[in-house]
Amino acid sequence: MVKIRIDDRELEVQEGITIFNAASEAGIPIPHFCYHPAFVPEGTCRMCLVEIEGVPKLELACSTVVRDGMIVSTQSDRVRDGRKGVLEFLLAEHPLDCPICDQAGDCKLQDYYEDYGLYESQFSEVKDKHDKKVDLGKHLIHDQERCVLCRRCVRFLCEVTGTEDLGVFERGSHTEVNLYLDNQVDNNYSGNLAQICPVGAITDKDFRFQTRSWFLEEAESICPLCSRGCSIQIGYHPGFSRFSLPKRVYRIRAKTNETVNGYWICDLGRYGYRYLDENRATNLKARDSQSRIQWDAAVTLLSEKIKRLYYMKRTSRITVILNSALTNEELYLAGKIFQKDLTDVNIFFADAAPESGDDVLLTSERTPNRRGALELGFDLKPVDMDILSSQTDLVIIFGTHILETHSLSDLSNAMENIPAKFVLAPHTSDLDPMVDMVLPSTHIAEKAGSLTNIDGLVQSFQSALHPLGESQAEWQVLVDLGKELAINFKFYGQFSNPKNINREMGKEVPFFGK
Amino acid sequence: MLKHLGFFIEIVKGSIITIRHFVVNMFYHILNLFGIKTKRRGAVTRQYPEAPIQLASRHRSLHRLLQRDDGKPRCVVCMLCATVCPSECIYIEAAEESDPEIQKVPSTFIIDLSRCCFCGFCVEACPEDAIRMDTGEVELARYGRGDLVYNLEKLLG
């Protein structure tokens, strides 16, 4: 440990770290473009200048290692003046097309100009022309005029994906970041380039001109598209009071989580957000009634049908098709109701089919909570069509993944003979016309709870978005159903949010009690 | 009888007010006639709507969108007007333009005049001088609310 002083603050920091890291640990912001915690410091942007007592010139905070007794100043007049000069050179060739730039609002050039710039331009020369719309690949557009040559993108492609598609070409004011030969940036992590670009040089095609970033609000959630459980930030539009927007969610970005995904997420998670708004089931629908039904009436009806079979000792003719996109709490409740309260119910799992993964983040399992289901003691049996078609009097289907593994005609043949059929799913699907009642449920982003990722890490999360329309989280429906069944009313009566359920689950299943 | 006397008193009161206004205004008009400047000016009756009113040049009237030389809207959909609008009555959607110098053009531009408070912030916020409120059109009464929703075509004129 060494003792240093940054801006009148005495700090005791680890030996060998840089001034930048020491300052950011202490919460002292230092402006920077090229420094990114995932990469080795490079010192190309020269924005992180600081003054060190006894050193004649301003030094770079990102690449200067701390020494014992070092006295650093990050806000002195000399430092501010130096940063202003750096910014003036960076902006000398910048096109200033903020009105059409998707980065406006998130842009570091804008922020630092407010903090350190505020000068009158001294450049009367015409700015250099570069290509304003280079197609970098499936998801990215590159504007060479806006680039500040921080080389974050080049380093990302060298150090993280190893594909090395981008390089820096030419010299002087003609310097530009471009593709090698006829390469394309088309790996599964390309979307991260748009996120790490500190200015608007690399932007998302998907987000291009959709909205302005200051309209969006960010909420944290967990990506449910594979079993890695990456932390994500959902950028959603709270909407205008008068005009209806085409969608709620405009972009998903990686949230830094050192233990799981680091600073990145894959393109599947980043651009696959359409499931949140498209084909959503928003209203309760009953096949034989035209009038609107309410949630309590629907749950009462469901519980009456279950109770009838329960009193006739025919619970073995109940089939429940769960999925492992449900949270730990929901699976725990489902286990309680269908395994403990009603014994010998047939429980199957219908999940998204596994696809090929990669060895960075994306796993081949495409469902977020398979490990959690295993830890809760489910055996994850796939759907047995014989039991569904001939030995079932009541079926409750969670989610619509069963359509991926079974053909529509098989399903409708099997379902024809079942007297009571219920679907609890966030999406409308071809199952809807087959069943008695469709109950709209929510996505991971719209509910709270916890998920267990492929390595057995239990991550809890809060709801990022409001449930759409009448939809309700599955845990709420299961708690209501448990209470309505009244086999063990007191147990379900204590649950008012996923936290209570989690606590109870932790007592019972030691894996979740850690 | 007493009741009728009451009416008579009110008529006299009203006449006094009318006469006072006449005399006071006449006084200022006469002063004005002789070139004597006063702080207060005599009232004038205008025959609106039969005779049109001359609006001040900075008067904020119905919006219009300005065009480039080739007839395309100048707007680049920076959405600063929609951001600054206190009554949230502007809605814009962007489209891609093939010219790399423009890139972004509006595909939808809606101003809901039934909500607009004519503050003029949109004009002030616009970095491209694409929206102005200088049409001089102030008679904006319509029979339906829908007629007050102005789209891109109507705003371009």
Which class best fits the helix and strand makeup of chain B?
Answer: alpha+beta
State the distance separating the first and last CA atoms of chain A: 33 Å
CATH architectural category of the largest domain in chain A: 3-Layer(aba) Sandwich
Q: In CATH terms, what is the fold-level topology of the largest domain in chain A? A: Rossmann fold
Poorly predicted ranges of chain A (pLDDT <50, ≥5 residues)? none
Number of strands of chain B: 5
Radius of gyration of CA atoms of chain A, rounded to a whole number: 28 Å
- What is the overall number of helices of chain A? 15
| CATH architecture identity of the largest domain in chain B | 2-Layer Sandwich
Oligomerization: heterodimer
Q: Please give the largest β-sheet of chain A.
A: 6 strands, mixed
How many angstroms separate the termini of chain B? 65 Å
Structural class of chain A: alpha/beta
Shape of chain B: elongated
Strand composition percent of chain B: 5-15%
Unreliably modeled segments of chain B: none
CATH topology of the largest domain in chain B: Alpha-Beta Plaits
Largest sheet of chain B: 3 strands, antiparallel
Mean pLDDT of chain B: 92
Q: Which CATH C-level class of the largest domain in chain A is it?
A: Alpha Beta
What would the keywords be for this entry?
heterodimer; A: 514 residues; alpha/beta; Ubiquitin-like (UB roll); Alpha-Beta Plaits; Rossmann fold; six-stranded mixed beta sheet; five-stranded mixed beta sheet; 15 helices; 17% strand; elongated; B: 157 residues; alpha+beta; 5 strands
Give a brief description.
The complex is a heterodimer of chains A (about 525) and B (about 160). By secondary structure, chain A is α/β, with parallel strands linked by helices. Chain A folds into 3 domains: about 70 residues, Ubiquitin-like (UB roll) (Roll), CATH 3.10.20; about 150 residues, 2-Layer Sandwich (Alpha-Beta Plaits), CATH 3.30.70.20; about 230 residues, 3-Layer(aba) Sandwich (Rossmann fold), CATH 3.40.50.740.
